[in-house]
Every structure is written in C-alpha cells, then in structure tokens.
Amino acid sequence: MTLIFCFNKEEILQLKNKLEQNQINNINLDEEYKPLFEYPEYLEDYNYITIDHVLYKYCLGLLIPHKKLYDIKPIFHQSILRQSKNIKKLDISTFLFYRESFKNFNVQNFTSNLTRLNSLSLNLNDTSNNIEQEFLSNMATINLQELIINFSSHVIVMATFEKPCKIIQEQNKLKKFKILNCYSLLNNILLSLEFQKNSLVQLEFINSNFDNASLKSFNNLYNLKYLSFTTCKGILLDQCEILKFVPFKLKELSFLRNSWDANVTPLMIKYLGSSLQRLLIKNPTILSIEHISMYCSNLISLKIRIDIQFNSSVLPFFRNLRTKILNLSIIKYDTELFINLSNNIPINISKISINYYSANKYFRFKEFLENCHNKFEIINLNYIVNSNFLKIILNYIERSNNSSLKILGLKDLDGRLNDEKSMLLNSIKAKGIKLMEFHNLNNDCGGISGGI
C-alpha cells in the first residue's frame, strides 16, 4: 500500500484499468493521500524476483486472481525504478521493458539516477526493443564493481552479446564477474574480460559451454583470486595447457557438477594449485586427490561434496592431504563410508565439518567419532542435540584426554533441553569446549568464503 501511495497519476490510472471495481475497493485506494516520503527513493537493493514474490503474496491476500498479477506487477516495477535514486545493487530482467506500462518509461532519467550503483545483475532475453537497447547502452557508462549476466534463452544471437560485451569493456574497476547460461559465443565474453586485466578479482561460470572458447584470455588476468566452474562443459585437456602460464595467484577454486573429461579438473588443479588456500570439488577422483596433495602446498581448507557417484576407493588417498580444514557434504548412504573416511583422515586435519543429508545421521556420526583420530580442534556436525549422542561425544573427548578439542558444533543448541541433555552439555563445557550452532560454524570449517 505504501508503494501504491507513491504512484503518480498515470500509474494509478494504469492500476485501475487492470483491476475490477471490487478489486480496487479491496485495495481501498485513497488518491488524495500522500505519504510523508517517497519511499522508493531510499531503496538501495532492487531485486525484481523478490518484488514479484512480494506482489504475489499481496495479491493473494486481497483475493486478486493470479492472472492479474502479470498485468499489474510491471506497474510496480516501473514506479519503483522511476523514483529510485540511491540504488547500490540492481537485479533486473530486460523482459520488463516489453510490458505495456514501460512504453513511456524515461530510461535516461532512470540511469542518470544510478550514481551509487556498484552491482548490476542482468537477466537478458534474446529479443530487443528500443527501451532495452537504450538501457544497456547507458549501463556501459556506469562504473561497476560487480556484474552478473544471465542469458535466459538457449538461442543467443550475436546482437544479444554486443551490448553486454560493451558494458564489460567499458568498466575500469570491475572486481567480480559472473555469467550464467552462456551456451554459445562465450569466447566473446572472455575476450571482453581482457579489458579488466588489472581489476578483476572474482570470476564465476555457471551452466556455460566452453566449446570453441579459448582459455588464452586467462593469461591477461593479473589479479584474479577466485575462480569457479559450476555445471559447465566443453573444456578439453589441450585447452588447459595455456593455464601453465597464467600470471594470477588464485586463493579459491571451485568445481561443481561439470561435464568434461575426468582429467580436466586434476589438470587445472595442477596448474592453478600452488597458491590455493581454499578448494571446492565434487566427487574427486584418485588423480584429483593426488594432485591436491602434490600441487596445493598452501591449501588451508578443502571442501568436498560426495554423492552416490563417489567411488569410495578414493578414500585411502585422503591420507596424503596436507590441508588443515576438511568440510564434507555427503549424500551417499554407504554403511562403510564413514568408517573408511574416519580411518583415512590424516592427523594434520584439525578442523572437520560434516553436513550429512540423511535421516539416519546418528549411526554414521557414531561410527565416525569411534574411529577417527583424536587430534581434532573443531568438530562440526549437522546433528540435533541428543542425549545418547552427547554421551558418545563425551567418550570421544575422554579418549582424546581432552587435549585437542576446543569447539563442538551441533544443531538446535537453543532448543528445549531436558535435565539430562543440560547436564551432558554442561559436562562438555566443563572440559573447556565451546559449543556453537552448526551453521554458524560451517564457514569457519572450510566453506568457500564470501569471495564466491
């Protein structure tokens, strides 16, 4: 209602034209009332998906049919964007510019108000109109620190790439870049990134195809620290050879659900691993673990995601890992997995976090604690406080002679506790061990940092 009170006369008329009289009565629109402030003027974070979700719930509460939402939500977007003068983070779909309510939208006034903008997320369509083209052209004149481009269509034509590439090229302090759903012409994007060779720190590829794309552009990125590949394909072993000569020193590297030759990931680890402090990998192979052990001498934190495709024969090679922190997310209901895992974790790993996605966590964590080494400083488990399990933890502490463990992470520590649970938790605290919530501790135990 506050946003509606900030509508101008044209927007109020558009809203009335889209609704039935009884729906207008439900809104109880008072055209004479004006709020104390034009509240959209103070908005700093504009996210079109969040706004759509709030509008959906609003219409649901007023019994406005769902089909009407598609008619009225562009009016809200247009009004908010028209008034916004302090946006720092803009997440927008160019599809908005195809709606009737935007036909007279003053793009120049809007973009001239974006003087504080430092983060832009673009959801691009494969068609264009004058408003969209003017918007994209104007965005190339704004200096950003973060740019995210999402191609929402599988069919991408060269014209669709020209404006986003221009935006990339015209930046002079771009630090973070993410691209999603780029199935063709990725090489154009990579070539544009060369213009950011001294500023770009973070680079992320999601659901993108590297067929016919050269990694040579990586050799012109001098300050890159964070690199991530998720659901990507098309990188060949020969393409990776250029990575021998990259000038940057990575701190974090991430691989998730990529469909390329099994040897590509270990080869990239070999060429990029010497400076790595954090690494995220899913279902590592024996060669990947060997290369992590051999080439990642500065690794502090290793995060591994394990699912049903993981080959447990890899576990004995964990013994050679030199990292201090191991963070595991496990979706594999293998009875022997936790015993084999605990028996092969080297003593140099002093902090471990295990996020196990199963209802039967108790027995798996029990197996782990009864078989693992006793030199952990931090143990973090996504398990709800349970009297029997707390007894197992106390047994582990006593086996450790209370010499190493300093922090224990569990779930729902603030929940209702009976006398027995309270007594057991106090016994753990009395041994000098700090208790923390699992999720609060998880990032300290090897979660890929805010870099990506």
From TrEMBL:
Specify the domain of life of the species encoding this protein: Eukaryota
Name of the protein in its database record: RNI-like protein
Q: What is the lineage of its organism?
A: Eukaryota, Fungi, Fungi incertae sedis, Mucoromycota, Glomeromycotina
